[in-house]
Structure formats: C-alpha cells, structure tokens
C-alpha cells in the first residue's frame, strides 16, 4: 500500500495492454484510468504508435500525463507545450522502399505520420536478417517485433529513455513511476521504473521483476491495477 501511495505517475502501453481481442480499447480500463487521474495520478501513454494517435487517445480518455510515442522516440507534453525528438529520423521513404523490394514489407497505416520509428505490417520474417540488410545499406538501426508491428528505429530509441525524458519535464523521478506493458518492447521500461506492474499477458521476464501482478489480461488487468493505485491514494488523503 505504501509503495502505491508514492506513485506520482502511471505509464501505460496501449496495444495489447489497453486493448484486447480485435484491437478494441477496453472501456473498463478507460474508466479506471480516469478514476486514477481523479485521484491525482497523471497517466502517461507510452507506445509504438505515432504521436497523432497517442495524442488523440490521451485527450479523449481525459488523461493529463505526457505521451511517449514511437517506442520512446517522441515525447509530447501538451500541458507544458513541449515536444522532444530523441533521435535523428531515418530516411523513412528510402527505408520503406528498400524493405518493400527485399522483403515485401508493407508500412502500417500510420506511416505518413511517423517521424523516427518506422512500423511495418507483421509477417513471418527474420528480424536479424532485416536488420543486417539495412546495416549493409548503411543504416544503424534496431529491428523489433511488438506483437502488433515490426519496428525499425535508431538504436538509441527505447521506451525507458523516452519515459525518463517525460518524467524530467514533470519533475517526477522514475522511482515514483508505475508502468505496465505486454510485450518485449516494454521490458526496458518496466526495469527502469520504481513500481513495475504486470498483467496476465505481460512477458514472463517482466513478471519476474514486477512489484505487483494481477491475473487478469489486457484492459481488465490494467483496470484492476489502476483502481488499486487510486484506492491507495484516496486512503492516503483520508489518513493525512
């Protein structure tokens, strides 16, 4: 309870975390995150999605935390009017054309709006082969699979770095942040925060370091965690 009361921000992944089957947003999670905001804990959406997608989602959910887009490459805080780009953008059209010709990889619908991290529709393919090919062309990149898309980004891009910069904007220490996610791309973020959280579909490696784990998956798990944090803060206010 005491650890939950010390949380000053919650970072939450989107796809597979706030969404469930059919990529549908969990209304239960949306309601619980708003309750958490009302308890005084801002929610930071952090995802591989592009900035326009995350910004709109954050606004419509009624969240006040910064957003960290493109797997940590872009940070935007609308309350402060600050935007940070944390890596030099790739030549996205050249990269997309090369991967289309060599591997028949198709960019996702968000391609026109992406700035640094490029996303391609998933298919059975060797990530190391894709990375090796791009390195042969002179690109320094990291290729990952979020479970929803294949991502190509500069090697310095990570969710942990993006979240750290978002926290600096708000004067919040990483030790005061709770975070939850569902894929390999979330593990570095979960290792970086003070209160790593896990839902049923969080990777086993991340569950091993989680301060709190719930049995429910996706949005139902997020809703349960958010309400536990909100309750801890509400009790703390009543006791003070």
Tell me the number of structural domains.
2
Supply the number of helical segments.
9
Shape summary: globular
The overall strand count is 11
Question: What's the rounded overall pLDDT mean?
Answer: 94
What is the quaternary state of this protein? single chain
What would the CATH topology of the largest domain be? Rossmann fold
Strand order in the largest sheet: 5-4-3-2-1-9-10-11
Spans of at least 5 consecutive residues with low confidence:
none
What is the CATH architecture term of the largest domain? 3-Layer(aba) Sandwich
Q: What proportion of the residues form beta strands (DSSP E)?
A: 15-25%
Q: For the terminal residues, how far apart are their CA atoms?
A: 14 Å
H/E series:
HEHEHEEEHEHEEHEHEHEH
Which CATH class of the largest domain is shown?
Alpha Beta
Largest sheet: 8 strands, mixed
Range of helix content:
25-40%
Q: Going by CATH, what is the homologous superfamily of the largest domain?
A: HAD superfamily/HAD-like
How large, in whole angstroms, is the Cα Rg? 18 Å
Assign the structural class, choosing from mainly alpha, mainly beta, alpha/beta, alpha+beta, or little secondary structure. Answer: alpha/beta
List the helices and strands and how they pair.
Blueprint: H1 2-5, E1 9-12, H2 27-38, E2 43-46, H3 51-61, E3 67-69, E4 74-77, E5 82-85, H4 92-103, E6 118-120, H5 127-136, E7 142-145, E8 150-153, H6 159-170, E9 177-180, H7 187-192, E10 195-198, H8 204-207, E11 212-213, H9 218-239
Parallel strand pairs: 1-2, 1-9, 2-3, 9-10, 10-11
Antiparallel strand pairs: 3-4, 4-5, 6-8, 7-8
């Amino acid at each position: 309870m005491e650890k939950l009361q010390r949380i000053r921000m919650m970072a939450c992944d989107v796809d597979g975390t706030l969404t469930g089957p059919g990529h549908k947003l969990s209304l239960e999670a949306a309601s619980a995150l708003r309750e958490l905001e009302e308890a005084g804990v801002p929610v930071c959406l952090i995802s591989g999605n592009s900035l326009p997608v995350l910004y709109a989602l954050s606004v419509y959910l009624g969240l006040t935390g910064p957003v960290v887009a493109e797997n940590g490459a872009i940070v935007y805080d609308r309350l402060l009017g600050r935007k940070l780009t944390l890596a030099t953008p790739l030549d996205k059209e050249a990269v997309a054309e090369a991967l289309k010709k060599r591997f028949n990889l198709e960019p996702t619908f968000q391609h026109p709006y992406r700035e640094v991290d490029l996303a391609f529709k998933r298919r059975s393919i060797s990530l190391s082969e894709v990375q090796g090919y791009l390195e042969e062309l002179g690109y320094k990149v990291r290729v990952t699979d979020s479970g929803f898309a294949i991502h190509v980004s500069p090697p310095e891009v990570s969710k942990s770095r993006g979240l750290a910069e978002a926290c600096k904007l708000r004067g919040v220490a990483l030790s005061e942040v709770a975070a939850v996610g569902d894929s390999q791309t979330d593990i570095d973020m979960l290792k970086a925060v003070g209160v790593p959280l896990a839902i049923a579909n969080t990777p086993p490696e991340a569950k091993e370091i989680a301060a709190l784990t719930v049995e429910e998956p996706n949005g139902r798990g997020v809703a349960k965690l958010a309400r536990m944090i909100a309750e801890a803060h509400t009790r703390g206010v009543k006791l003070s």
